[in-house]
Amino acid sequence: MRTHVILPEDLVKSVGALAGKGKRSQFIEEAIREKLRIDNLLAALEATAGAFSASDHPHWDTPEKVAAWVRESRRQDDKRIDRYRLG
After folding, report:
1. CA neighbor of 57 nearest in space, from 66, 48, 49
2. Which of 2, 6, 16, 79 is deepest in the core (most CB within 10 A)?
3. How many domains are contained in the chain?
């Protein structure tokens, strides 16, 4: 799809110099996609802010408790995988 966009001359020159002749559209598309990805991620983070409460997860109070929780989670995963392997 074609669209008409007005950009400052210095920006167009910079994109042209960086992207190369005939590749401005691709460069601009990639830049817009990256900006949208970041904005969508920030919106998701903002929408979910506060959904996680430290008081609901006392096993994550300290780095040591987190490490113990990770080790236990991995141990449980290994047990489940072993059950599937052994059938």
Report:
1. 66
2. 16
3. 2
pTM here is: 0.61
Per-residue pLDDT of the chain (87 residues; tens, 9 = 90+): 999 999 999 999 999 999 998 999 999 999 999 999 999 999 999 999 888 777 888 888 889 999 999 999 999 998 888 888 776
44 and 59 part of one domain: no
> Which structural domain range is residue 22 located in?
9-48
1 in a domain, yes or no? Answer: no
Report how far residue 34's alpha carbon sits from residue 38's, in angstroms, rounded to the nearest whole number: 6
The single-letter DSSP state of residue 52 is S
Q: Which amino acid is at 34?
A: E
Query: Could you tell me if 38 and 62 lie in one domain?
Result: no
